[in-house]
Amino acid sequence: MLFAITASRVIFALIIPYYHNIFIIEGILIPNTIVMGIFLIYYIGRKSKGNFMPNYRIDEWCGALAGIEREFKVEWNAGLYKLGGKMFAMIGHNKEGEEIISLKNKPEKNEALRAAYADITPGYYLNKAHWISIKLGGDVPEEVMKELIVESYRCILESLNAKERKAIIGE
């Protein structure tokens, strides 16, 4: 195997297998777990371009909202956040492999957002008028991202009937 190690990313170093769970890297014995960690750093560095905003932050923001359900859609390789069985947020990847979050909003608001931020595009694999996709780690500030998550949640909440809304928020 060939890798390289720099301060931020693995690029190249000769790795020679030595025994069952130890490798020799440039004359140094290194446990297999460390080598796998280096590989994961390399893989994540390749997979996400630009600054990476960890999913746990988005999960924290979405998780703070009442009545949400989390689901992972294997065939889409995407995490879904639902309210009353309806999706309000989806975390996945675009065709370039960049991590994105897709959120629902009013069409006129979505047009304004796409004009204001280069990293907001029409919803990837979703209705382009009602959904936007935001590249994580891009030019959209965290505060704006949080507001958009809450707005998406409210769009779905408003679409539920009164009985469902009452069960979720107690109105």
Q: Please report the distance between the alpha carbons of the first and last residues.
A: 60 Å
Evaluate the radius of gyration: 21 Å
Q: Structural class, judged by helices and strands?
A: alpha+beta
Residue ranges: pLDDT <50 for 5 or more in a row?
A: 1-20, 39-54
The number of E-state strands comes to 9
| Main sheet makeup | 6 strands, antiparallel
Number of H- or I-type helical stretches = 5
- Residue share in β-strands: 25-35%
Provide a short characterization of the protein structure.
Helices cover about 35% and strands about 25% of the residues.
Describe the structure.
36% of the residues lie in helices and 27% in strands. With 171 residues, it is of the alpha+beta class. The chain is built from five helices and nine strands. The strands form two sheets. Strands 4-5-6-7-9-8 form a six-stranded antiparallel β-sheet, covered by helices on one side. Strands 1-2-3 form a three-stranded antiparallel β-sheet.
Secondary-structure blueprint:
Layout lengths: L14 E4 L3 E4 L2 E4 H16 L7 H9 L4 E6 L4 E6 L2 E8 L5 E6 L2 H10 L3 E3 L8 E5 L6 H18 L2 H8 L2
Antiparallel strand pairs: 1-2, 2-3, 4-5, 5-6, 6-7, 7-9, 8-9
Structure keywords:
36% helix; 171 residues; globular; alpha+beta; 6-stranded antiparallel sheet; 9 strands; 5 helices; 3-stranded antiparallel sheet
